[in-house]
Design a protein that fits this description.
This protein is an all-alpha fold. Helices cover 73% and strands 0% of the residues. It has helices at residues 2-21, 26-43, 46-70, 76-93, 96-102, 111-124, 135-142, 157-170. Helix 1 (2-21) runs antiparallel to helix 2 (26-43), helix 1 runs parallel beside helix 3 and helix 6 (111-124) runs parallel beside helix 8. The longest helix has 25 residues, at 46-70.
Length: 171
């Protein structure tokens, strides 16, 4: 969910900018923007939702400023349509899971344990690691805490890559 959100965060400003810039393709790009934002909400990535919301506001604000300076004001209708589509589609996919994740009292509750365990794994095989993509299979042998679910990632790419491929992979 986080990697997907990062990809959409790169593409979202382009869609928003085109929705605010081109009158004849405004509806198409507004729809694309709404779909992209709704997909982040559906994925329930907390950071993705926050960053995408900031991007939406920033790009629309920059478009308003640019159009005002160019003498062609961005129509209120365009901003209203964009906001309506974004709200409608993000509501359609549902905010329940995303808001539940925001309500977590300690969202990093197990990550510290994953990181400590990953460091122990690295200490056992620092040069070669355990093999690419093996973190989720090797982790249970080293785990000090049971997270109550299948743990597929270390939630830290650098640690996970080092566990999988050793320091050779990082160089």
């Amino acid at each position: 969910r986080d990697h997907y959100s990062a990809l959409i965060e790169l593409l979202l400003p382009l869609a928003v900018w085109n929705a605010c810039r081109e009158r004849r393709t405004m509806l198409l790009y507004a729809g694309i923007t709404a779909l992209m934002y709704a997909s982040i909400v559906a994925g329930a990535s907390r950071a993705g939702i926050v960053i995408a919301t900031i991007e939406l506001g920033a790009v629309v604000s920059l478009s308003l400023l640019r159009n005002r300076q160019a003498g062609s004001p961005l129509r209120f209708r365009t901003v209203l349509l964009l906001a309506s589509l974004v709200l409608t589609l993000s509501t359609a996919v549902g905010w329940k899971v995303a808001l539940g994740r925001f309500a977590d009292k300690n969202p990093l509750v197990y990550r510290k344990d994953f990181w400590k365990t990953s460091i122990h794994m690295i200490q056992d095989r620092p040069a070669t690691g355990f093999g690419l993509g093996s973190w989720q299979w090797v982790y249970p042998r080293y785990a000090a805490v049971d997270a109550g679910a299948i743990v597929r990632h270390a939630h830290n790419d650098w640690l996970e890559w080092t566990c999988d491929g050793g320091f050779v992979l990082l160089t």
